[in-house]
Amino acid sequence: MIYFWFLIYNLIIYPLIFILASIGAIFNKKMKDGLVGRFHTVDILKNTLQSWDNKQSVYWFHAASHGEFEQVRPVLRGLKEVEKECYVIASFFSPSGYQNVDDQNIDCKIYLPFDFIWSIRKVLKIIKPKKIIFATYDIWPNIIWLANKRKIHTTVFAARFDQNTSKILPIIKHFYRAVYQSFSTIYTITEEDNYQLNKILPQKNKPTVRVLGNPRYDQVKEKADKFTKNHTITVLMRDKRLIIGSVWPEDEKKIINSIFQLMEEDEELCILWAPHEPSEKYIQLSIQQFLVHGYKPTIIRSKKISKIQNGRVVILGVVGVLSKLYWEGQIAYIGGGFSSGIHNIMEPAIARLPVIFGPKFRKSYAAIELLKAGGGFSINNGTEFYDIMKVLLNDKNRFLDASFAATKVIHDNIGSATRVVRSIIRD
Q1: Residue 62 in contact with residue 98, Cβ under 8 Å?
Q2: Cβ–Cβ contacts within 10 Å for residue 397, how many?
Q3: Domain of 37?
Q4: Backbone dihedral region for residue 311 (phi beyond 0: left; psi -120 to 50: alpha; all else: beta)
Q5: Portion of the chain with pLDDT greater than 90, in percent
Q6: What is the pLDDT, as a whole number, of residue 226?
Q7: What SS3 class is residue 109?
Q8: Per-residue pLDDT for 285 more than 50?
Q9: Interatomic CA distance for residues 337 and 341, integer angstroms
Q10: What is the pLDDT of residue 321?
């Protein structure tokens, strides 16, 4: 079965992915940056590894993007504490990760190499990793299959398999079975994920599977510890600010009219607008949109910002600082729920903000937990967004209950990073 899918993947699936990506790179700068960056991966590895001691262990971590790396960060930190002399290579699929992640525990940063057989063979020969560790979902079959053949340990942690996953559909399931059974270890977030995974895995010759939780909770808790000392006033004493984080055009279409209506009805309500992709073109379009409605935005372009400037509308034009700025708000709307899936909702939750998001949240365990606890709210349209906002703005008790519930979800789930590090070293 593995050999069959190995042929199908290498003769049909990945060549098609490569062709489509190459065409897309002509029209999309982000895709172009990622494609061009991959052509330099081997050279970067060769130049960097020349100065490394071959006796030291090399761990290769992979995350899809900047957001997914937040799960990796506490695991890296824990691993370096235990194995101080090890080397860490971090690879990224997206330019958002490669261009924006800066972590002292990374010894070499690369774009994920092309998943062609010859590319992966060359990279594995250069790196000679002790273990390859994937975060959550960005799994590339040839890396897994060729590492398995070379007896290199492979792991995926914070693995999610929701009830509606396409991975359990008949033909698709057989493909993923060929991939996941080639892992050495798989660490899921919940027992439900474990149950769904076992629908994919074969009955025999399965990898070691453990339920270890999500290390991202540990990361947002650590970030919170850095800022809570300077934010001792209660959340109700902050400015009445709605923070729109990682907003996509699809989110904007749903909620923008409701936002203007809320601002007209409440002159104290102000907005921090943080695009998912803060390109200059999108920022200028956002400025024009707010100007049409009588609001002149202030633009944040510095990563050194620690406090939001005065003004009813502030647009965030940089990435990597939003986690700090959540502490300057009262309510958060997190984007992605009307497009590819919601983004990081843990950072606003630990900052004591009730969190609103769109309907595509099933892949986020944290979103499901927030909904259950009452700290999160899912919407399907602008009317629902308006109604939830009115309740949170006007009912002090409902607001405080939601604020407390959001933060409690984070505190109740910390400790996963330690379990993942121990298992990576032990298994």
Answers
A1: no
A2: 7
A3: 2-213
A4: left
A5: 61
A6: 59
A7: strand
A8: yes
A9: 5
A10: 84
**pLDDT tens for each residue of 106-116:** 999 999 999 99
**Domain count across the chain:** 2
425 within a domain of the structure (yes/no): no
What CA–CA distance (Å, rounded) separates 4 from 20?
23
Tens-place pLDDT, residues 45-78: 999 988 888 778 999 999 998 888 988 999 999 9
CA distance 50 to 27: 37
Half-sphere exposure of 33 (CA within 13 A, CB side): 12
The verdict on residue 421 lying in a domain is no
Read off the pTM.
0.80
Task: Determine the longest span between alpha carbons in the chain, in angstroms.
Answer: 66
Instruction: Measure the CA–CA gap between 403 and 376, rounded to whole angstroms.
Output: 9
pLDDT tens-place string over residues 227-250: 554 544 478 888 899 999 999 999
298, HSE (Cβ side, Cα atoms, 13 Å): 14
Nearest of 360, 323, 326, 363 to residue 165 by alpha carbon:
363
Exposed e or buried b per residue across 85-105, where buried means at least 16 C-beta atoms within 10 angstroms of its C-beta: ebbbbbbbbbbbbbbbbeeeb
Residue 21 sits in the same domain as residue 126: yes
Which of 213, 244, 267 terminates a domain? The answer is 213
Cβ–Cβ < 8 Å for 143, 137? no
C-alpha angle 135/141/142, rounded to 5°? 120
Band of pLDDT at residue 355, cut at 50, 70 and 90: very high
Inform me whether the pLDDT recorded for 85 exceeds 50: yes
- Answer yes or no: are the C-beta atoms of 268 and 240 closer than 8 Å: yes
Specify whether 201 is located in the same domain as 128.
Answer: yes
| CATH (domain of 272) | 3.40.50.2000
**Residue appearing with tokens 């949109």:** 289
Q: Is the pLDDT of residue 179 over 90?
A: yes
Q: What is the chain's mean pLDDT, rounded? A: 90
3-state helix, strand, coil in the chain (%, to 5): 50, 15, 35
